[in-house]
Amino acid sequence: MKNPNTPVSILTVPFDLGASQRGTKLGPEAILKAGLVNKLHSLQMKHTIHEVHFPPFIEERYSSSPRLNYLNENIRIHSKLADEVYRISKNGVFPLILGGDHSIAIGTISGLRKHYQNLGIIWMDAHSDLNTPLTTPSGNIHGMSLAVNLGMGDPKLTSIGGLKSTIDPKDVVIVGARSIDHGERELIRREGITCFTMHDIDKLGMAHVMQEAIRISSSGTDGVHLSFDIDSIDPQIAPATGTPVPGGLSYREVHLAMEMLYESSILTSAEIVENNPLFDDHERSSELLVGLIGSLLGERIL
After folding, report:
1. What is the pTM of this model?
2. Is 142 a catalytic residue?
3. Can 282 be counted among the known catalytic residues?
4. Which of 73, 78, 101, 102 is catalytic?
5. Catalytically annotated residue among 78, 115, 127, 255
6. Is 203 in contact with 215 (CB distance < 8 Å)?
7. Under a CB-based contact definition with an 8 Å cutoff, are residues 9 and 94 in contact?
């Protein structure tokens, strides 16, 4: 974060209709119960907590298209989240969003784009989330959230927040990818998106990858958002995910990433998503996420 004295607003978004596996709506409460408030107190950070409530709706999985599961429900929650994030950002507060599945990044980033003219994105995820209705194998919107923020996909999603401008692909850096669909691979190459796979991390080292991610996402941008999916971490360390992919980030690699982001002073917002307590082992994933948020906000070993 650019100023360590900036107050933090924690937005909890208990939403899981962007994914096929239910349970991530329980993720925000699990992180709070694992000690997040005490962690912020130990860092002497001013903070507030509030929940983004659903507008009333009736679930309709195929309410619009079988290629876009729960489209109407997604539109409702992301539109409300965009308004909340914009309000927080324009007041000079650091938004820390707790999801929920990764579809909530549609609302988060839509709100941020109303405040920042040129937003950079660091997307830490086992997946690239760059599918569209034409390429999706599942119809799950959490696998389309980055594509939507690049202006690709259903107009009802790309227009959330009321803006025509989109994130510039050159300002996006994906870190930790290891499961990329064919259509996503083509899009990454076509748009010139920087994507550091686990092969790159193995070969170059986490420190080098994060240095590059920080440099690219902050070059010519006026804000940088971290979108962090728990499945970027190896599932043996963080089992609380409905989309586990072996061979992810180690405990120290992911802490180093958070520590380097804090030291860089580039972050203006962050979200933590896809924590599913139904798959956890005695809350250890939620406790790990509390520790990672601590590192992101300035906690150090010494």
Report:
1. 0.96
2. yes
3. no
4. 102
5. 127
6. no
7. yes
State the Cα–Cα distance between residues 160 and 145, nearest whole angstrom.
Answer: 12
Distances (CA, A) of 33 to 39, 106, 126, 269: 11, 26, 26, 22
Of the residues 73, 83, 200, 229, which is catalytic?
A: 229
Q: How far is CA 93 from CA 102, 271, 280, in A?
A: 22, 14, 31
Topology given in CATH for the domain delimited by 8-296: Arginase; Chain A (3.40.800)
Annotation marks residue 16 as catalytic: no
| 229 noted as active-site residue | yes
Q: Show Cβ contacts of residue 199 under 8 Å, excluding neighbours closer than 6 positions.
A: none
Catalytic residue among 16, 73, 83, 125: 125
Rg (the chain; Cα; Å): 17
Q: Choosing from 101, 171, 200, 231, which is the catalytic residue?
A: 231
Buried b or exposed e, range 285-296, using 16+ CB within 10 angstroms: bbbbbbbbbbbb
The per-residue pLDDT for range 250-296, each reduced to its tens digit, is: 999 999 999 999 999 999 999 999 999 999 999 999 999 999 999 99
